[in-house]
């Protein structure tokens, strides 16, 4: 056993030079009007993406993200030993049908909106441990597939409070491998515990998820003897305006200062203030499309040296909500570092 | 990179002595009347398991299986670095709420009825790679939670054809760790590809899943230069009578003989012929409750030296079915070996 891979119960240290050999991002039309638009690889002008159903459109976006990631890595689907993928849809059908079409062995993941970093952490572990030469990750969400599954048909026009979040339409993918000549390094991961402080309102998921983000952040800082200042950027996945301000308060309570621009939230970064998305973006795609475009670009270009992505997930279902259960939440963190070309 | 952990694209070889330090099985009343009843750790006499809802009952069964597994291993929930768990319910709420109550870091898995072996393969990889000292796996299914989610309310009394399968009620859990003084060894895993030959009938899942089982079996035999005769027992997860006879035919077509009693199917083994379960049992619990009771006992007692468990999963959803999609399937295999006490 290479004991040093396990820093602590929750934090892993990858022993080898695990790199993002390629990453790809595809987004929907609203995301394509946001402030990060120029950094996305592909913007679909229509939420159907030329398909007959929104579910098929979501699959097309995951496929597109995968194809861009493969293309950037110079590798093919046949080179990938395994795909770690997931999405918000019941029985993660986006991942299942995408894996079928790509013919890559599948390990299906579900961590709600934190699926992006769960998949990246596990892919990195499998490559680091020598189980896979190359591992592919993928995750996606689509506003219209999520709305009709979790809430009401879009046509119903249900009103939402300002604390509600807007499920992001898009997908992100990465090719994880050893060494290589480009792409940031994945150095550490911190696996989250399920935290549930009793919030039951699905229109206030940011408030429900903030304590899980705080728990993972504090565990991460403790395990690595680090502080926010050790990172050029710390992003949460999709706490939105409400949740991220709660997170800042929770951290301040224990004397850890999360301040802009060092701290930001992907769900806020995706949209401009004049786009009507309530408290901000959410969905598996939120953390993925920001991490695999803006953050990877920033690391490659030297704008950032070290970034911590803490993807957040609300692990409830319509049935658990209807049965009066509170919303259990989780957050998984992954550290990305610039590899200097010296 | 320890290159030898990767035998091939799909097959892993664990380098260390990865053992099932404990395993636990809890089942519902119908399963408790089946031929393996004496080998189960806990039989709930009522499908509500003393809870208010079937969903809560399913969680209680997963919790019970985990507690038995921990108890047999002599370890506690605090000793577990990570829980790899999943179930059939939308957003895998059984796993999420169980992980919340156990306060073990969670990596949520979804591979439909093949979740058992996906979780065990990943848990073994994380321990083998030094990321976890001890990893816990869990999976569950419940006939009544599955019926109302995937089909009709039980009260509706819908008729089913003989090729239909009966979702097993129960849960299984394992504690995975290095060395130790008892419990079988996990030596290899073969990760499945998604196979879809175009079957669209959810009442004939065995036929849909059989080609995925064949693909994983043939890959496994090829990668390790093994044949069925190298195993004392090969079980599929839940092909049932219809699916397992198709698998035997598919294998015979390529001159690989799967014959009883060397080959069996967990979905068939759980119930006696006079129990009315159509083609046989299905569900995440099927492969888990047989593997973690009957098979682990057989390995511990010397009745078996080496067993291959190929858990099978149908990766569709009610939405994908309603949209006219076919049923993508997968199968993940894990090899368990007796460790002689010499």
From TrEMBL, chains A, B:
Protein name from the UniProt record: Stage V sporulation protein AD
Biological source species: Ammoniphilus oxalaticus
Gene Ontology MF annotations: acyltransferase activity
InterPro entries: SpoVAD, SpoVAD_sf, Thiolase-like
């Amino acid at each position: 056993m290479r004991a040093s891979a396990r820093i602590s119960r929750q934090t892993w240290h990858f022993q080898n030079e695990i790199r993002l050999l390629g990453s790809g991002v595809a987004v929907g039309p609203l995301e394509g009007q946001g402030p990060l638009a120029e950094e996305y690889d592909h913007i679909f002008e229509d939420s159907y993406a030329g398909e007959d159903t929104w579910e098929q459109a979501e699959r097309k976006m995951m496929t597109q993200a995968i194809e861009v990631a493969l293309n950037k890595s110079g590798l093919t689907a046949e080179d990938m030993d395994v795909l770690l993928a997931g999405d918000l849809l019941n029985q993660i059908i986006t991942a299942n049908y995408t894996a079928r079409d790509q013919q890559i062995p599948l390990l299906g993941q579900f961590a709600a909106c934190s699926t992006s970093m769960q998949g990246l952490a596990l892919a990195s572990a499998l490559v680091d441990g020598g189980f896979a030469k190359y591992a592919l990750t993928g995750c996606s969400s689509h506003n219209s597939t999520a709305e009709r599954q979790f809430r009401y048909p879009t046509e119903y026009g249900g009103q939402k409070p300002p604390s509600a979040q807007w499920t992001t339409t898009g997908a992100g993918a990465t090719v994880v491998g050893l060494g290589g000549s480009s792409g940031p390094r994945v150095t550490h991961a911190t696996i989250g515990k399920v935290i549930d402080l009793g919030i039951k309102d699905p229109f206030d998921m940011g408030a429900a998820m903030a304590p899980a983000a705080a728990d993972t952040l504090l565990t991460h800082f403790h395990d690595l003897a680090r502080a926010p200042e050790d990172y050029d950027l710390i992003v949460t996945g999709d706490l939105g305006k409400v949740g991220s301000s709660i997170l800042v308060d929770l951290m301040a309570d224990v004397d850890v200062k999360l301040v802009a621009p060092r701290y930001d939230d992907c769900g806020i970064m995706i949209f401009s203030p004049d786009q009507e998305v309530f408290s901000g973006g959410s969905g598996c795609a939120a953390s993925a499309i920001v991490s695999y475009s803006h953050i990877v670009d920033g690391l490659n270009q030297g704008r950032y040296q070290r970034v911590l992505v803490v993807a957040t997930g609300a692990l409830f279902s319509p049935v658990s909500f209807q049965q009066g259960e509170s919303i259990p939440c989780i957050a998984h963190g992954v550290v990305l570092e610039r590899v200097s070309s010296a």
